[in-house]
Specification:
Elements (H helix, E strand, L loop, with lengths): L1 H28 L40 H11 L4 E2 H8 L3 H14 L2 E5 L2 E4 L1
Antiparallel strand pairs: 1-3, 2-3
Helix pairs in contact: 2-4, 3-4
Length: 125
């Protein structure tokens, strides 16, 4: 009988030690462990809204402003036009010199991205 009482005391000490550890953990996390509570028959009142912290976000990487190449600029203008565009119009809209615009037109027409519909008038393919 004495041995049994000693064992029970040891178990009781262990349980109290576990309770203290549990309380420390609860304080560390700021929440109490959830237990099943009986439902009350009282009317539920509105609870105060707890202020939640917004999740910490990492700083978004800034995107580099990518400039369109000269060819892309010319192609964009040509493809937007329904009736077609001539070289002087492209020069005026892009600000490029005549030689650059003509080289772009030549290269893109060889690649099949634009086509010639009349003398000096180009449309998207």
């Amino acid at each position: 009988m004495t041995v049994l009482k000693g064992d029970l005391r040891d178990i009781q000490k262990d349980i109290k030690a576990l309770e203290r550890k549990m309380e420390k953990l609860v304080k560390a996390f700021g929440k109490e462990p959830k237990t099943k509570a009986k439902r009350s028959t009282r009317k539920v009142t509105a609870r105060k809204a707890t202020a939640k912290r917004a999740p910490v976000r990492k700083a978004a990487a800034q995107k580099k402003s990518v400039q369109a190449t000269a060819t892309e600029q010319v192609l964009k203008i040509v493809k937007r036009s329904r009736k077609g565009v001539d070289v002087p119009t492209l020069r005026a809209k892009t600000g490029f010199d005549d030689k650059k615009v003509r080289n772009i037109i030549f290269r893109t027409s060889k690649e099949g991205k634009i086509k010639k519909i009349g003398r000096g008038i180009y449309v998207g393919a």
